[in-house]
Each structure stands twice: as structure tokens, then as C-alpha cells.
Design goal:
The complex is a heterodimer.
Chain A lengths: L6 H5 L2 H6 L7 E2 L2 E2 L1 E2 L10 H13 L10 H21 L7 E4 L2 H16 L5 E5 L8 H10 L2 E5 L9 H7 L4 E7 L11 H10 L3 E5 L11 H4 L3 E5 L10 E5 L1 H5 L11 E4 L4 E3 L13 H17 L1 H20 L4 E4 L8 E6 L4 H10 L2 E2 L1 E3 L4 H7 L4 E5 L6 H18 L1
Parallel strand pairs in A: 3-15, 5-6, 5-7, 7-8, 8-9
Antiparallel strand pairs in A: 1-2, 4-10, 9-10, 11-12, 13-14, 14-17, 16-17
Helix pairs in contact in A: 3-11, 4-11, 5-6, 12-15, 13-15
Chain B lengths: L2 H4 L2 H8 L18 E9 L4 E10 L2 E10 L2 H14 L4 H16 L25 H17 L1 E5 L2
The chains are: A alpha/beta, B alpha+beta.
Amino acid sequence: MAAEVSPLTLAYDVARVRRDFPILATHVNGHPLVYLDSAASSQRPLPVLRAVEDYETHSHANVHRGVHALSQAATAAFEGARERTRRFLNARSTREIIFVRGTTEAINLVAQSYARPRFGPGDEILITALEHHANIVPWQMVCEQTGCTLKVAPIDRRGELIYEAFLELLNRRTRLVAVAQVSNALGTVLPVQRIADAAHAQGAVVLVDGAQAVPHSRIDVRTLGADFYAFSGHKMYAPTGIGVLYGREELLAAMPPWQGGGEMIRTVSFEQTTYNELPWKFEAGTPNISGAVGLAAAMDYLETLGIEAVAAHESRLLTLATREVGRIPGIELIGTAREKASVLSFTLAGVHAHDLGTILDTEGIAVRTGHHCAMPVMTFFGIPATARASFGCYNTEEEVARLVAGLGRAREVFG
Amino acid sequence: MDLRELYRDVILDHNRQPRNFGRLEPGGAGGAGGELRHADGHNPLCGDRLTVYVRMSGERVEDIRFEGSGCAISTASASLMTEAVKGKDRAAIRRLFDAVHATLTHHDAEPGAALGKLAALSGVREFPARVKCATLSWHTLNAALEHGAASVSTE
């Protein structure tokens, strides 16, 4: 028997992983669902669903506010999730972990609370041409508000950052460098550690958009050299509406609060309000407590599977899909970086991405089609849109075969 | 859902070879001094972009062209629209759009004879996510007729 077990099964039991995700049993348009849109939002496993349900069923009250038993249970669960997140990122202190709605809110917080009060004319913010709109627009807003300038480091036809060009744009005027760790549109893995070292040498602080990286790689913010690190729960098997901003404590301590309200204060009078300490200074209002509980459960889940094993599994799928999809006549792969994570973006000659999305959907296959909130990337490649298949811990080789068959169907329809 | 209902031969043909594709230039060929108008349409969800040009002769659309890039549904719909509205006046075009819109959104709507080739779009109603693709060119034409030069978005 043992001889018949494939190396893949030995290394990683994807069938067992799939049983943790009840939604994967769904049928779409008469076909078993093939979910290839985890880069937009992943599905949630039972341990996450149960942790949220358990919290809502047994422990919910407002946090940090009551002496009663449930409030203490809720506070323990919420602050426990913060400690879980600290370990997940290898941050020094829970004071460095701010719960937010998601990556977008995290970046906006840094833009408005770190950059806006400090930057002015002559200062520069440096990003890359690969960024998601969430790592472009908040900086454009800061530029409008302060008179500072946005600089954009270019990419090449493979979708890789041109590192030398990045270095040329980096100088003493650069106050902040904001980069994705993994491109959402193309899957390119950026050399964040090198970028951070170079930025620090010029005295700039570094924000890393980790939204696409956290489900695929072990994150150590200290090794990475991130001064700020932003990510969302829902792309790493946790619920929507919860995300994290990590910030180095000395930076966060010197930043003014972003939003005012309850929770973020120590004392309030009409003459004078004093602010709460970190991290609550940045968490005005009642937070997403059950979301934080679900996020912590997702971190447990990922580490139980073994994040390296998950990444290796996804990498095998990506290699297979790159080969099999790439050999279909008319397919052009968009984004062929040497180091990629989990994303296969492509166009099919004569078939617009949006039509591809509809045709694949009738076969039960969910892919993202469009500009992926990265319109400058589409403009660079001279295309309006791509179809994007992205892989998670639960995808299989059979699903890659279904995708290939679905693309064949699209070619038939458009003859 | 039947893909052939959505991607009928007429749709695929107009997608591959859009009619009246290109721009209208001031005083250009076939244009004897009518009022030239244009409008841009954009569907941010899928990146479809098109520009509709019309040359008016009083209330009547004397000539019409479009250019841009989009999915098969939006391209074919624009192409079919240009054929259908050429020579018609504003009121007739408005009635036609109402009929097209009903066909795209109402399950029980019977495409009337007035629709002609535009009836090929009726399969879109089984695919609600694609209705915006089919109406983009019509909204853009409306903008051109109402405002002369404008930009519309389906979001």
C-alpha cells in the first residue's frame, strides 16, 4: 500500500484539509465548486468557524469596560488574540499590534497618523509599480494634504521590481517606502528584506503590505525589517472585517491617535482629553472582537497545517498550473517573475477576461477577472484585465485540470 | 445556464467584427456638417471602456460610431446598438433602449419584433452580473445625446 501513496499525499494530506472547509462541498451550476479565488478572499475552516461561534455563544460582552464575568471573558479572548498575533509576527510586544478592519485601514492609519503630520514639500514617498490601490491611494492623499511627492519604482515585463531603478529613486528625501511583499495581481514576491535595508540606510521607514504574503509564508517582522506591517484576516482563512497593523513601538508611541472615541482615551473632559496607551490609543470604539478571535484561530490552524507545508503545496500547484495553462494556445501568462506565490494571471487571445470568468463560472470554477485593484499594473502590460487563478491550502491538482478543461471550453465557445 | 444562450452567433460575430467601429471626425466622410457629439463610458468592475460618437441632424442620429475595448457582451451590444439607432430620432432611441433594458432584466419579457437583431442580447438576463456590460454603450449614447460630451460609469 505504502508504495502507492504519492509523495504529495505523504507530505500534505489535501483531502483532509478540504474536509475542514465545508463550503468546498458546494455545487455551482451543477458542478463541484473549484475555488481559485483565495487571493481575493480565502474560505474559513471549521476551527475558525467554531472559535467564532464559541465566542459568540459563551463569551461575548464589550471589552475593557466591565467588571462582570462575560466582559472579562471577552477581554481575555480579545487580548489573547493580540498575543497570538504578536507571536505570529514575532513582534516584541502586544503594544505593537493594532487591530483594524483590514490591510486598507492599516495603511490609511499609517498614512494619516504617521506620514501626514510629518511630511511636507520636498519629502518623498516611494512605492512600486506593483502595488494594490490600497497601497497607492492613501499615499496620494497624503501627497495632496502635505505637498510631498509620490515616487514609483518600475517593474519589468516579467513583473519583477527593477531593483536598480528602485535604488536610484531612493535618497535622503525618501521618508517612507511602502511595498507589497507579494503582488496581488501577478504573484511576484518582492525582495522586502533588501528593500528595507536599503531604505533604512537612507533614513526612511518601511511599510510592508503583507495581505498576500501572510497565507503563504512565515512572517518575522524583525528579520524582515518592517517598521509597519499590514495584513487582513480574510485572506488567511479568518473572517472579514479584521486585520492587523504592526508598528514598531517607538514609532506608534510618537504618533497621534487616528480616530477619536471610546476605548482610545484615558480621561475626557471638555477642556482636555488624555489618550490611552498603546495599542488601544489606535482602537477607537468597540472593536471586532469575534473577528480577532477568528483571526487567532486561523493562525493556530495555519501553524497546525505547517505554513511551510502549505506554501510547498501551493507552489507545486502553481508550477503545475503554469505549465498546463501556459501550453494552451492563445494563453499569455501575465507575471512570470522568478519568485512567485500562489497567483496565476493570464489572458486568452480573442476572449476578454470577463467572458472567461463567466464561462468558467458555468463550469463551477471561481476565478477573479478584472484589474485586481491594480490598474497601473494592467496599464503597464497594455491590457484592460486578466483572469487570475489563485491557490490556497485546499486546492488540488484535479482542480488545476478542471481549470485547464474550462479554458478549453472557453476556446470552443469563442471558436 | 446555457452559455450558447449568452454567446449566440450574432453576439460572437459582432464581437469579432464590430460594426461602425472607430471615431467620427469633425466634417469627416459622410458628415455634412451635422453636430458632432461624443461621450465616454466606463465599467470599472471589468475595465470596459468605450467612446460613442454621434453626428446629429436636428433630433436625428445621422451617423454613429464607437471605439474602445471591452468584453464580448459590451462590444457586441455597442455594435448592435450603432446599427439599430442610426437614422432614428431621440424619442425612438429612448423607446428602443427601454425595450432593450426590459429584455435584459425581465425574465418574462418577450423580445418584441421592434428589437430586431438586438433580441440576441436576451440571453444576458440569465447572467445578472453581465447586464452592466450590455447596457454600458446605451448609457454612453444617452450621455452623448443629453449632454454632448460627458463620461458615464456603470458603477
